Each structure stands twice: as structure tokens, then as C-alpha cells.
Amino acid sequence: MESKPNPPEIKPTTPEIKPATAEIKPTIPPVIKASTEEKKSKKSLILLTLLLLSIAGNGVLGWLLHKEQQRANTIVTEKETVIVERDNVKNDLVQLQTDYGTLKTNDKKIQADLDEKKEQIAGLIEEADKHKGDAYYISKLKKETQTLRTIMQGYIHTIDSVNTQNKTLLKENVKVRTQYLSETEKANELTKEKEDLEGRISTGSILKASGTKASGVSVRDGGKKESETKKARKSDKIKVTLTIGENSLAKKGQREVYLRVLTPDGKELTRALDDANSFSFNGVRGFFCARQSINYDNKEIPVTLYAEDKNKFIPGKYIIEVYCEQNRIGQTAITLE
Fold this sequence. Notes:
Oligomer: single chain
Largest sheet: 4 strands, antiparallel
Order of helices and strands: HHHHEEEEEEEEEE
Helix content: 40-55%
CATH topology of the largest domain: Immunoglobulin-like
Number of helices: 4
């Protein structure tokens, strides 16, 4: 028996599966995407806000800087003004110190006062250097300088009068002491009278004068004739006329009218430098060159006074003052050539 061939072996075939090569993209959920955009928007808003704040801050800073510059310029100007004023005050003090240094007297008390004032001025000069930028202090120094100059004018007058009287006073010491006691009593009486008067009168009761005039006159025919002149060498007298006005509030009775004349060289014109030719006015004592008693009856009364100079009149300006009851009631001036 013929053998049959074996049938061919059939191998099972498995299809080849190739891996997919397509790119798989991640998918972002819509909620997360919206949150991210919102954050970006907020960040942009914050940056914008910061930018605006920065711009505004720079503007404010620039305005403040401008204001500060203006203030600085003002301060510089004020300081420069104060320094100039300080220099003026210091120069005045230096000049005042020099002026005080020229004043000399044998009166120990007055000289001690002068030395004290010079030390005070030296101290003020130092203070001016220390406070050159202090407007208030410089203003204070200016006032003190003016006060010291006013005081110096008083010293000049006092020293001139004292130096003129020294020789006479040395010879009449005993007499002066006696007169001093007498004047003390008079002063006490005058004080009492003044207190009584202050209780009875007011400012309205003070006498006043008008039309005060002065002129140089030359005298002829034994004083019977006189003519006005502007020449000092031709003037025998200075004639002063005025009218005391009506005042119903003033007390009737006798009044003493005094004529005080300051010569061109700053002296008081008087017959003699003694108590008999002195009077009180404005709280001080001075010398008169003429005096006249009047009987005041609350009505207008004309007054004529004559000033004479035993040493002859010198050219220059004469200051004329008329006093009654310690009050200046008239004033004028005359210049003799």
C-alpha cells in the first residue's frame, strides 16, 4: 500500500501590531485655563497700579523738591539780609565804642559809667559775631545801640556842664553844701506841691504858647531903639516873642516863664553856672538865660524875653526853648551868620 505524503504544516500567522506614533497632547481643563488668565490680568493690574503710583509719587516728590528749593532760596535771602543788618549794627557799635573813648572827665563816677558802657559795647560786638544769623537778636542789638547812643548824648551834655563848673565848685564847696541842704528842703516842698497840683490839674490845664519867634537885635540909644540883624557880631541880644494862650482850666496867678538857649557849640546860655540861674524841667535841671514873671488870668498874654551873651554871640544855629511850670510851651531856632 502506497503511503500518502504528509500534508504541509500550516503555521498560524499573527498580524504585526505596530505602536501608534501619533503625538498625544495634554488636555487642559477649562477651569484651570480661566484661573491662569485671571491671575495674569490681576498681575497686569497690579503692575499698572504700581506704575501709576510711581508716577504720582514722582510728581509729589518733584513738587516737594520745588517747594523745598523755594524755601531754601527764601532762607538764604533772609540770612543775607540779616548778615547785612548785622554788619551795619556792628559798624555802629564800633563807631559808638570810638565815640565813647573820646569822652574824658575828672568826675570819677561819670568816668566809671563811661568805662562800663565801653565794656558793654565790646560785649555787644562779640554778641553780634556770635548771632550773625539771628534776626531777632540783631534787632535787639540795634535797639541797644540806639539806647547807648542816646545815653552818650546825655553824657556829652553832662560832661561839658561839669567841666565848666568844676573850678567854681571847688572854691564854693562849703556854699554848695549849704545850698544843697536848702535845695533838699525846697525839693521836698516842691514834691509836696507837685503832689497837690497833680490832684487838682489835668493835661488840659497845662499852659500852651503859639507864635514863638526869635531874632537877633542890635541895641542903640541906651536900649531905647533896637533893630533886627542876622549877623552874630552885630547882635547884642536875641529877642524871643510868643503868646501864651487862653486856658480856662489853668489856675490863675503868678507864673515864671524861663528862656533856655542852646548855643551852636552845644552849651546852655546863662548869666552864671549857679543855682540862682538854674531851673527844673522834664525831670532834670538846666540853666536859663532869661526869666519873666507873669500874672496869668486865663486869657491870652504876650511875652517877650531877651537872651544876652557876655562873651558875644558866635555864628551858627541857636536852639530856643521856653518853659513854664516845668513844661516846654514854645520852641524855635535862629541862625546867626
